[in-house]
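Re: your question about Acetoin utilization protein AcuC

S., sorry for the slow reply, the queue was backed up all week. Below is exactly what I fed in.
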Amino acid sequence: MSGEARLMWDEDVTKYNFGPGHPMDPVRLTLTMRLVEAFALPKRIDVAAAPPAGDSTLGLVHRPEYVQAVRLASREPWEADPRRGLGTEDTPAFEGMHEVSALIAGQSLAGAEAIWRGEIQHAVNFAGGLHHAMPAAASGFCVYNDAALAIARLLELGARRVAYLDTDVHHGDGVQETFWDDPRVLTISLHEHPRTLFPGTGRPEETGGDDAPGSAVNLALPAGTSDEEWLRALHAVVPELLADFGPEVIVSQHGADTHFEDPLAHLTLSLDAQRAAAHACHAWAHEHASGRWLPLGGGGYAVVDVVPRLWTHLVGIAAHAPVAPSEEVPEEWRRFVHTLTQRPGPHRMTDGRVPRWQDWAAGYDPGNAVDQAILATRQAVYPLRGLLP
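Result:
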C-alpha cells in the first residue's frame, strides 16, 4: 500500500438537488468542500473525480427496471413512479436525477476500487452515504445506494469480508436489505430507535437472513441519547464484532444528523462525539482491515453549523492531518457562508465538549435505557456469531 488517501470530489455532485425547501440542501456539499480547502487539506490528500456509474455497475445492486424508471423520471419528472419511491415528498424527481445520482455512486465505487487495488488506504466521498435506496426503489432522499454498490464492487473484485458501519441517526436499511443473506458482509447500524424515527426498521432482532445469521447488527438507541452514552454503545459492540469478523475493508457512513442541532431527529450528540466516532473508525480500519477504509457522508440537515465541520474533520482524519477541535474556522470561509446563505458560520471546529465514555466492561446498569439497548443487541447477535453476550 502507498499509504496515501484520496478525496473523491466532482463539483457536479452539488446538482443532487430536490428543490427549494427540501432538507437535503446541496449547499452542505459546497460548504464542506470550501471548508476543506480553507484548511488546505487538498495539500494533504489527493483530490480526484471519477465517472458516473454505468448501468451494468448499478446493476450490482439495483434492478434494471428501477434504473430505467430513474432515467425516465430524470428526463420527464412528471412521469416519476411513486411505486418506485420516485416523485414522492421525500424523494422528488428532478431533471438530471439519474446522471448526478450515478455520479455520486461513481465516486464511492472508484474509491473502493482504488483501495482494493492498493493504490491508497483511505478514500472519502462525503457526497455519498445514500444508505436508504433499495434495489428496486428510492427511499429517504436516496436514489442509488452508493454504499451498497461500493461493497458489491469490492466483493466482485474478490473481497471475502467487508464490514459496513453506519453511524447516521437513521437505520442503514438499504445496505442491510442488499446484503441480508450474504455472510461476506457484516452490517452494523447505530441509530435512533425505529419507534420514533424513519425508516421504522433496525430493531436488535433483525440479525440477517437464513444464509447469514448474525450478519446484521442493529443498535437502536432511545431519543435523547447524548455523547457519553452513544460512544459507550459504539464501543460496547463494534470492536468485538470487527475483531471476530476480520474484515478486509471497512466502509463507514458518517451522517451528521445525530447532532443536537439537526432538525429531523432526536439524538443529542455534539460535533466532538461525532469526530471521536470518525477517529474510532479510522483506528479500527488500521487495526482490523490493513488500513482499508472508505468513509462516506450521509444525512445531516444543519447544513451550515454542523455538516461542513464534521465532514471536514472526516477528511482531515482520512488524510492523517486531523483538524484540531480548538482550531478557529477560517474567516474567509465564514465570509463565503454569509455570502452564499446570508447566515453566520460557526467560529470553531468544536462544540466545546470532551468526549468520554465508560467501557461496557465496567458494568451494566439495568435501569439505564441505553444499557438496555446495548444488551438487547449483544444478546440478539453475539450467540449467532459464537460470542458471549
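Residues 97-117 form the longest helix (21 residues). The mean pLDDT is 97.

Happy to talk it through on Thursday.
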